[in-house]
Amino acid sequence: MKGGAKAHDKPSPEMTRPDMVLASSAGIATTAAENTHLASGQDHAVTAGRDMSVSLGRSLFASVGGAISMFAYHLGIKLIAAKGRVDVQAQSDQMALAALKDITISSTDGKVVITASKEVWIGAGGSYIQINGSGIVNGSPGPILEKGASWDVPGPSSVSGILPVLSTGYDQQIRIKREDGNPLANVPYFIKDEAGNTYRGLTDQDGCCERVYTMGAQKLTVLTGVLALEQW
C-alpha cells in the first residue's frame, strides 16, 4: 500500500513509501499450524490500549544488545518461579535495591547468607556494624546492649564465604558474505547455540545477523537461505 507524494496536507512520510497497513474496525487474528515469524530491520513496536498477554508452552528467551527497562505505574511488579532457582546478576557493575518503605528478606525453609569479598556494612540511625578482613567494628551514638545465656571468646577464627563466579559473557555478530567477499543483504538466517537458544531474521545491508550473546564459549550453528527458512 503506497500513498501519494508528501505534501502539507499529507505530512506522514510512512504513507509515501511502499508500506503495508492491515487495519480492522473490530479485531484481527492470525494463526499458523507451525511457526510465525515477525522481523524488522529497525524498530519494532507493540502497543495495546489495555492489556497484553503472552502465553508460551515452553520457554521465553530475550536477547538484548543494549538495555532492558520495565516500569509499572500503579500495581507493582511480580517475579515468581514455581520451581527452580531465581538468579539475578550484575556481571560487570553495581546492583542497587531501594524502597520507599520496608524491605523484607526471608527464607521459609533455609538460611539467609550475606557474603562480600571486601566488606559488609550494616547501619541504621547512626549505629553500625562494619565487618571486613581487619575485624568487626560496632558503633553507636547510644548504648549497646547484648543479651545471651552465655558469652564465650575461645580465640580467633575465620571462614571464607563462597562467592559466585560471574562470567563476563561472550558475544559475536556473524556476517554473511559471497564468495567474492561482498555482503549478502536481506538473506534469511537461523542461528542456534548449544543452550538451544535460536536467533532468526534477515541480514542487514552489510550482511550482518543480529549479535548473539552467551554466558560462555559456545559453538553456533548457522543456516542461511532455504535451510534457514526450514527452521523458522
Q: Could you explain the architecture of this structure?
A:
It contains one helix and eight strands. The protein has 232 residues and is mainly β. The protein has a three-stranded antiparallel sheet with strand order 1-2-3, with no helix packed on it. β2 (127-132) and β3 (135-139) form a beta hairpin. The chain is elongated.
Quick gist of this model?
With 232 residues, the protein is mainly beta. It is 3% helix and 16% strand. The chain has one helix spanning 225-231; strands at 119-124, 127-132, 135-139, 170-172, 188-192, 198-202, 212-214, 221-224.
What keyword list fits this structure?
single chain, elongated, three-stranded antiparallel beta sheet, 232 residues, 8 strands
Order of SSEs: EEEEEEEEH
Helical region count? 1
| Uncertain spans | none
Distance between the termini: 26 Å
Helix content: under 10%
Mean pLDDT: 87
The gyration radius over C-alpha positions equals: 28 Å
Query: Beta-strand percentage?
Result: 15-25%
| Strand element count | 8
Question: How do the helices and strands line up, and which of them pair or pack?
Answer:
Layout: E1 119-124, E2 127-132, E3 135-139, E4 170-172, E5 188-192, E6 198-202, E7 212-214, E8 221-224, H1 225-231
